[in-house]
Batch of 2 targets.
Target 1
Amino acid sequence: MKNPFIFGRAVAGEHFVDREEELSELTASLLSGQHIVLFSPRKMGKTSLIKRAFGELEDADALCIYIDLWQTTSTHAIAKEIVGSVVNKTYTSAEKLGRELKDLFRSLRPKVYIEMDGQIGVELGREAVGGMEEALRDALDLPERVAKRKETRIIIAFDEFQEITHLNGLQLEKIFRSTLQHHENVSYIFAGSERSLINMIFGEKERPFYRFAKQMELNPISDDVLERFITDKFIRSGKEIDRDAAAWIAEFSGGVPYYVQHICHEVWYMTGRTADMGIVERCLKEQILPSLSSGFQTIWSRIRSREQRKLLICIANEDQPRIYSQKLIEKYELKSPGHVGKAVRALNGAGLMDGNGIEDLFFEEWVRVTFSF
Ligand SMILES: Nc1ncnc2c1ncn2[C@@H]1O[C@H](COP(=O)(O)OP(=O)(O)O)[C@@H](O)[C@H]1O
Ligand SMILES: [Mg+2]
């Protein structure tokens, strides 16, 4: 029997649950030429939703291209990634592409070749006419030129778009914005997981991307839907899970599908015939948390501020904590609402908190059991 729960990569098909409304809003907007900012904290399912939407969009004859900015560490790498993925999606033969290259670019003179796996490889060279900025503009304009030529709509998803701020932030944003705004046949998805950066890029009046795209926030999935998903998957794979155990996992996960899949993946292995609460508890305590603990220890040791540590301990130990209340400030020996606010901002910036909560539920659980109060 095959483990029916998957985590650690985007899911599709039978592994994908819910998101009907988001899916139809996303596909309808993109097909009409509306650009989208897709925000949620990590692990909520953005990349999965994008890949799922791509399936529908391709059925509607759009060409879909996925570009992850997480791995691109320079302007040159972004340009290369865009050119490489656009040509691979739109040209099946390197010869044909070779013949058309002249018409597709202004300043770039890419060399094309066939890679071992049959993909078309591109070499950009670093000496484009007009320098790197012009090279990037040229690359960014490629999808629009191809879309016109092929008389089709192209959809481009830039995943983890906030990474642009870690490169050459404002300057890159200006180049992107001033280029993309002329595109009529390409729709863009900008997905991001860091609230403050995404708000800054798309929400601040002075920024180039201000109001460029429609904002969509991916929310938690309802407990009922997740509970049913868990129960169904167990049954279809020849095992079972008690109702209270499935309900507990759904509730613990707070609607974030990643935790459901991760916990269930491990619980499924530990289960002979029927999973119950005992197995779920053992699984968290003896399997999942220990496997993550050394990473969490490293994170913890890097938090130098005592106020920040105390705040995390407070949040992990309290149910729906009102972190600015005098009661909790006294109980956890936090200094003042002002200090709490400062710690919240720092921890948000470090990606450990999202808003007033701890972002990673396993980290929260680890803090709770390690520093019980
Ligand atoms: N709609 C969904 N149905 C079932 N599982 C999902 C769904 N969306 C996400 N997941 C689970 O969550 C994990 C993280 O999803 P991902 O799309 O990578 O999130 P994000 O891009 O927001 O960080 C996936 O590997 C999968 O296990
Ligand atoms: Mg993602």
Note: Residues 43 and 360 are 9 Å apart (CA to CA).
Target 2
Amino acid sequence: MITIQNNDGDRRVLLLDSPFALDESPDFPEYLFDVIFITNNSPKEAKAILSSINPVTSTKCCYKPLFVSSSLKGKMGNHDEIIDGYADDMNSMEVMTQIENIINYNTLIGLSATEDPILSSNQFFIRLTRYLISRKKTILEPRLEVSASTGYVIPVFDLFYRLGHYELSDYFVFMQSMTEKGLFRATKFVNKVYLCPNCLHSHVLHIQTCPKCGQSSIQTEEVIHHFRCANVSPEHTYNFGGQLRCPKCHKVLQHIGLDYDRPSIIYTCNTCGNTFIEPKSKTLCTSCKKTFNSEELIPQDFNIYEITSEGKQSIISPNIGFTIYTEFYDNYIEYNRLISRIRLLAEQKFSGNIQGDLLVGKIWILDADGITTSIRPEVIELVCQYFPNNKVSAANNITYVGSVIREYKGTDTEEGIINFQVMLSETIRAALPILNPGEKICYTYMKLQGNQSTIDDFIKDMGFISPTPDDSFEYNEKNS
Ligand SMILES: [Zn+2]
Ligand SMILES: [Zn+2]
Ligand SMILES: [Zn+2]
């Protein structure tokens, strides 16, 4: 059942008790109701309703007050984060006051429920932070949760992560870019944790392994040092019929500290018999099930964040500080993020963790004097569209595309590299209408070669254009 009823405060309340495709229904346009009231008494069903009808992701319910039955109080888990109150009577003084407070505050700060459907993670994050501002919840505090992806999570973000609204990598990029722009501020450091380099989950198992064969069936044993003859060997070599007897001079040991001591422990591998002083630490991710060397884990700081007053203003404003391409194209990343990504991929490649070629495409425009022109959003937009599965960035008057051409068993990467070149050619051809008279658009691509020590040079070269582009197109009247 779904109906709209006026409460005593003359607010129109949408009442519903079962899942309903509200956003798609022509019968209930956004302007017909001010408040949502879910009257179902089952926590499970109420959660199902909230997955689509909620004040964050629903286009018709955005920022509107939302109540659920009082019988559900304490039973809604993280869904509690998007519920304004638990009630049975829409006309109680308390409920009416709360409704007025929310609606008046939203009007005051200029938030209205006319939002477009969410198409990207960034749009989702903006919507969620707008909701948090509307509820004056401007402190974002991570909490430890045993079942959460990254261990520490901000409960309201985690709720939507579980509903599939974003990827973890997008989340970290968002938090970082909001902080860099001064829209969020870290107010308190909580902890530094190490995440899986593949899927960014925190639930990893630490494993000690044999440095020779890599197996984890290892045991420790104490080493005994016999002072009299200076013999040093594992304890089991001293064991003779329950007595400790030196294997070298055959004397029975007396008192620890007096004629012998135990200076260290030694590891023995049960698989290959190797003995060693220090085992090799490895990490097994319980989420993606891949194994990594422990040094490869990604360090991640968790902080308590506050949405700054500047942040409140620009997040609410319709032309939020983000340029059009970063808001609409999830594959656009800041240049320093691209660089750290390339560095990480290069290290993975050289340590043999990924097979294949690492490529970076570069696109730039030269003016009539052969000087590079500044970056144009239209070019970035095109590149984002032509390379939806690649990371795109821009700096140094150059637009970049990163790509890893994977090598599969028995194949080489030639074909992938040719495809990459063809796509770059098509992209610059498509950008022709953007050119002004006398201008020329060019591309080239770089392929990472060498070893660990050449990574820095590769990254440095990214800042420069090539005097001999792989392809270029000049301004042509017919195209403009
Ligand atoms: Zn071994
Ligand atoms: Zn001895
Ligand atoms: Zn993983």
Note: Residues 196, 198-199, 201, 285, 287-288, 290 surround zinc ion (ligand 3) (CB under 6 Å).
